[in-house]
Amino acid sequence: MSNLHYTIEPAVFDRFPDYVRGVVFAYDVQNGDSPPAFVAHLRAAEAEARARLTLDTLTAQPRIAAWREAFRTLGYKPGDFRPSIEALLRRVLRGQQRPMRDWRGAKKLRGQCARHLSPLGTVQLKPSSLLVAVGRQKRRCR
User: Fold this and answer.
1) φ and ψ at residue 125, rounded to 5 degrees
2) What's the whole-model pTM score?
3) Confidence class of residue 93 from pLDDT cuts 50, 70 and 90?
4) Mean pLDDT in residue range 1-10
């Protein structure tokens, strides 16, 4: 993994000058059941989100509104293609729980998303880039 590269193209910052991204590399990550403390963290964060948000107030929350505006700027309709943090919180507010068998740290990560209203995600450890799409890319979903 010594040749691993992670880049963000300058055009991203040109278009979104306030954009901030942190990257953490994790090695030897295992899928499987999460420790009870991770699940408890997730459930507590979900309860906090339900206590302070509703489906009616979610999009007015400044952090969610900022992501929706970024999607609009990119030409997406946020009601059709929701920012990941909004999609996560909508599931939480509807009482839908995520499956418990996945990367063990995912519960902790989703708990942080719900608690701080900030999108956090994971990607496979391989060379990757963040760039501004120009309409020629194919959308890939897993």
Assistant:
1) -75, 100
2) 0.69
3) very high
4) 70
